[in-house]
Structures
1.
Amino acid sequence: MTDSVAASDDDHALAARLATETGEMLVDLTRSSVADRRWGGLEYEGDRRAHLQIVEALAAERPDDVVLSEEGSDDPRRQGAERVWIVDPLDGSSDYGYSANWSVHIALVMDGEPVAGAVAVPGWGTTWATDPAPEPVPHDVESGVTPRIVVSRSRSRYDGMRLSQGLGADVYAVGSAGVKAMSVVRGEMDAYVHGGGLYEWDSCAPVAVARAAGLVCCHLDGSALEFNKSDPWSPGLVIARPGLVDDIVAVMFDRQY
Ligand SMILES: [Mg+2]
């Protein structure tokens, strides 16, 4: 044991493996005969199976750690716990089975910070993790090039207007926080901006991976993110190339809630 707050190599690898394996199970489920295409059928079954697979694996491999899952009940032991896994077993569930825009989020939080994590986007055949880290993103948007910013579908009207009018950005709207964040990690977007609240399981693993790629992650007013809060709700989120953050904060700072 050391006093420093850090994940082990095994934690990075475990996050990546659980995200990938859960994503594979979810892809298989969409192809199986039990897939119920009525509203609420496949989506709920995916949520349920993915949650069970992740919590059972963490209970076996990290029995002393606590888990906060979108699909589980809140475990009071996580306040004061040294190691807490924050997971979204299926992010973007309304797209699950219908498009590539859904993901699996696994993150380990120590002392309020994500120290290891992975996001699987099975529809793109890729899992991104904290170690090995993704290719570093450029610091700035090339001069003379219009910034590309992805926003949440549910918030696209107002957030999109601000970013398009205030920054002259090209704005795209997509479901799944993990997919949006990974579109910035892989360089097809320059920033992901979410006005209003979201939950820690939406943002935690995407933030872990985005930071490993050199992106800046903060609230819409530029303040620092904190994870494993007693209330896992969290005001607005920016994940952006470092050179773009101040401009985004200047036009979005009052859109936190
Ligand atoms: Mg979910």
Note: The chain has two domains: 9-129, 148-255.
2.
Amino acid sequence: MVLGGAFSIFMALCLSCLLILIAWKRTSKGGKLPPGPTPIPFLGNLLQVRTDAIFQSFLKLQKKYGSVFTVYFGPRPVVILCGHEAVKEALVDQADDFSGRGEMPTLEKNFQGYGLALSNGERWKILRRFSLTVLRNFGMGKRSIEERIQEEAGYLLEELHKFKGAPIDPTFFLSRTVSNIICSVVFGKRFDYEDQHFQSLMKMINESFVEMSMPWAQLYDMYWRVMQYFPGRHNHLYNLIEELKDFIASRVKINEASFDPSSPRDFIDCFLIKMYQDKNDPHSEFNLKNLQIPSKDSKHQIFCLLFWYIFCHLTAKIQEEINQVIGTHRIPRVDDRAKMPYTDAVIHEIQRLTDIVPLGAPHNVIRDTHFRGYFLPKGTDVYPLIGSVLRDPKYFRYPDAFYPQHFLDEQGHFKKNDAFVVFSSGKRICVGEALARIELFLYFTSILQRFSLRSLVPPDDIDIAHKISGFGNIPPTYELCFMAR
Ligand code: HEM
């Protein structure tokens, strides 16, 4: 009995010491981090941060601690930024300080700091410069990619016509269409929709995005140091991504077999040119570990379509704009967008509400940083909550409602809104933004030019709540009828 009591007192003392140590570390050498809920040793703020509703947990904490606060993912402090002003002050006004990529333990074992999206320092600068140049040449700003998207839209319309207005889940069709554009930039070719390799590539990409958004992944982000040694779904995600890497490696081999450095056909060829140029440089960043493809844009565009349907009273107005500017026969072009402010505003508003990456991607301060009177030591992870910017009441009159006027002035002209940050902002802003924007506009105008959308369920009864909400928001499945106009 006496021994048991002494042990309890000893444990209580240890716990108190740990708590004091954590509080001290927050304010001393460890910096003066923003306030936040008191963490429990080892568990951190698990009691306040629900792994199945992480974004909502942060919004709750924002009410108590303000727009900048600290939470502990296990023993690791993470600074959370909410709302447009805090995120802009960090990512734009102090862009360089906040330009590092934060820890993403679910992907770390696969990538180990390689590849554009997960790298830091010189490696990141080299890969980012290279990717932007190649995307500009193959993907953006050139007519060629517009033509590619128009052609792909044609294949999509052909597929949709085959169903003659019967209800279908458009997810599959749209994700094939969107993924094929990335494929044509990266691999230099579109795949036939029935191609087995293409289908398994898409399955891997979609499944890995879903896995990364599940509660287990949030738990893993907090306790990976322990969880990595146990069996679990993280091993499944690891295997999925390894398969994706094998697929890319196999495409590299195919490219190498017919490679002509004087006329690069795609992203891989451009990468190969750099690899050959640097083959005697052991420190070159142009190696296979740094060759990756992004994977989240298709979900976004699919979800957009659902919203489009729900606000289908608006499709009539968009179709009117299509009739006036494009007509019923000509294929939609990117430069039509400037003459279609209403359509443009609706696309922006849909993107704002679909909010595919609510937490944003984790950033990291690359040097000791003073921010809003706090001191963030070099290496502190920072989450800019994109979802909170997209619903910031100071910038959006009706944050939770669908209201295209957020992007229209009184004369009905398109109006930019600084808090529209679906692609993030600052030095890490999405490199695929221009490409994704062209795709969104061309696919949706092409669809609405040819089809009216109907559902078997009345619009008000459709549940648009995200099926899963974690790193990404995963849209619910749904069916629509595409009625030829
Ligand atoms: C609607 C579609 C898309 C959305 C909503 C989106 C959103 C984002 C967001 C929020 C980030 C994180 C930025 C940050 O760290 O603060 C990001 C990064 C990135 N995106 Fe996208 N993206 C989309 C499409 C694309 C496409 C089509 C590509 C490829 C061509 C792409 C390539 C990348 C890359 C490589 C990064 C990492 C950039 C870096 O770390 O420097 N994305 N994207």
Note: The longest helix spans residues 2-27.
